[in-house]
């Protein structure tokens, strides 16, 4: 009839009648952003725990990919033990797999870094400018499982390895580098990636060409 209102476009109807899942996800995202900002106590020198930033940066370096890659490669080049060579070669494979998977997920999700973040430690390039997931958390979980599985350590040292992984992950939120969900997903991803490494374990029998290079 004349004068009747035109029907709303479908996309506007969806906005007026959001789904339960959409509301839940939006609420969780809001809580994540709020909690991450509150926990970013070392995000700046003027923050609540700004004086702890130097210590947090040392922890940050301990979980960065470059020292782990360089250290593993150095060990490969200087070990005379075939058993150690096998472990180090698989650790190198794990670290490279971690870099590739984190880059793929970051490139797909493209979540920006937290707004309160001060990226003054490393220059971010390519997909590393994105936040989800935390590469440090992924690497910490992966290395932690790898070390506990393949190195014979006393109980106190095993506890320290686990604490290191947790502290590295927590530092990402405290420094304002990542949101909480970035870190939680990173830990889950790293835990899962270790299973892939174990399934594809490299040995002289499965990858003779690689071991011939060393």
From TrEMBL:
Primary subcellular site in the record, as a coarse category: endoplasmic reticulum
Transmembrane segments: 88-109, 151-171, 191-213
Domain Phosphatidic acid phosphatase type 2/haloperoxidase: 87-198
Cited Gene3D superfamilies: Phosphatidic acid phosphatase type 2/haloperoxidase
SUPFAM superfamilies found in the cross-reference section: Acid phosphatase/Vanadium-dependent haloperoxidase
GO cellular component, one term: nuclear inner membrane
Domain of life of the organism encoding this protein: Eukaryota
EC number(s) reported in the record: 3.6.1.68
Database matches in InterPro entries: PAP2/HPO, PAP2/HPO_sf
Listed name of the protein: Polyisoprenoid diphosphate/phosphate phosphohydrolase PLPP6
Organism: Motacilla alba (White wagtail)
Gene: Plpp6
């Amino acid at each position: 009839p004349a004068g009747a209102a035109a029907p709303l476009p479908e996309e506007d109807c969806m906005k007026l009648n959001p789904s339960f899942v959409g509301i839940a996800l939006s609420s969780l995202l809001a809580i994540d952003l709020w909690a991450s900002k509150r926990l970013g106590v070392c995000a700046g020198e003027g923050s609540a725990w700004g004086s702890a930033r130097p210590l947090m940066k040392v922890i940050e370096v301990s979980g960065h990919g470059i020292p782990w890659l360089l250290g593993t490669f150095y060990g490969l080049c200087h070990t005379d033990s075939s058993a150690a060579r096998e472990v180090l070669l698989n650790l190198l494979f794990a670290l490279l797999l971690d870099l590739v998977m984190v880059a793929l997920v970051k490139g797909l999700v493209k979540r920006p870094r937290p707004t309160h973040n001060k990226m003054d430690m490393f220059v971010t390039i390519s997909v590393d400018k994105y936040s989800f997931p935390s590469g440090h958390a992924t690497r910490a979980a992966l290395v932690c499982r790898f070390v506990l599985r393949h190195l014979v350590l006393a109980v106190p040292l095993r506890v320290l390895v686990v604490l290191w992984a947790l502290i590295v992950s927590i530092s990402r939120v405290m420094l304002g580098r990542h949101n909480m969900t970035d870190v939680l997903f990173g830990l889950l991803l790293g835990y899962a990636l270790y299973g892939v490494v174990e399934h594809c374990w490299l040995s002289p029998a499965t990858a003779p060409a690689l071991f011939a290079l060393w």
